[in-house]
Amino acid sequence: MTVALEAQGLGKKYGKRWALSDCTLDIPAGRVVGLVGPNGAGKTTLLNLAVGQIQPSAGSIRVLGGRPAEGPAQLAKVGYVAQDTPTYAALSVADHLKLGARLNPSWDDALARKRIERLRLDPGHKAGKLSGGQRAQLALTLGIAKRPELLILDEPVAALDPLARREFLQGLMEAAVEHSLGVVLSSHLVSDLERTCDYLIVIVESRVRVAGDVDDLLASHHRLTGPRRDPSTLPADQHIVSESHTDRQSTLIVRTDAPIHDPAWTVGQVGLEDLVLAYMSAEQARPTLEAVR
Predict the structure, then answer these.
(1) Among 106, 193, 220, 239, which is disulfide-ready with 147 (CB 3.0 to 4.6 Å)?
(2) Domain endpoint, select from 205, 239, 259
(3) Contact 154, 44 (CB under 8 A)
(4) Pairing state of beta strands 221-227 and 249-255?
(5) Are residues 236 and 174 in the same domain?
(6) How many domains does the chain have?
(7) Residues in domain ABC transporter (predicted)?
(8) Domain range holding 274?
(9) How many angstroms separate the Cα of 49 from the Cα of each of 12, 46, 186, 259?
(10) Is residue 211 one of the residues assigned to a domain?
(11) How far is 293 from 290, CA to CA, in rounded Å?
């Protein structure tokens, strides 16, 4: 398996606080990867480490076989669209394309101009006069026309209205297919990930909670509903992700590859949003064993 990003025991510490800790990942190349978690979970820290903007405090990280930002060849492999989809307000759309051509040895000018034309962006307009959606599309154009092997995006649609967000993601997916582009997309909007991603990583409180192929994850997670019971009585191969209890009923989300035969449980499917929320809320929602009893 070709690896787009490989992390071993990766961590970043600011003062006494770990923004990311003990992160071990193998992200396959050529996939559209959704990176999700609550604000402050460590998503931006991981992406900044991946593009070489910051250095790790512990562990190691390699991207497309090399150390992040280690020389021109490595820089050319990775495109990056930061959280505020940065553009230069005083520069025109055409100026941005000229700048992209000067800074990137593999720049595809025909691709950039074709995309700008399709988006109906006036080359003479200053970036500062564009709408938020238009600036995001300009930033995406710069990232794609660089012709990277991997494009990393840090919550690029968080501030956009629903229509602009849909258009941005549609353009991203078209580029990923047309140019065989690997993508890592950070977002806290699970609905966006459902439409775009085939690989999922959930980070909570600076640690990776789960990572894997979306279809495999959905197939191995189940919602169990039945009479209230002590979760510790479940078979050892049923890993409890989250649980909730009323006086008479227990509802569990479990991960297992084995069939669930216990007739006391009603077994239901878990959607992507349910899966993400289960991992995000697991630490806060799980009661003590004494409370269950």
Answers:
(1) 106
(2) 205
(3) yes
(4) antiparallel
(5) no
(6) 2
(7) 5-230
(8) 216-292
(9) 9, 5, 14, 40
(10) no
(11) 5
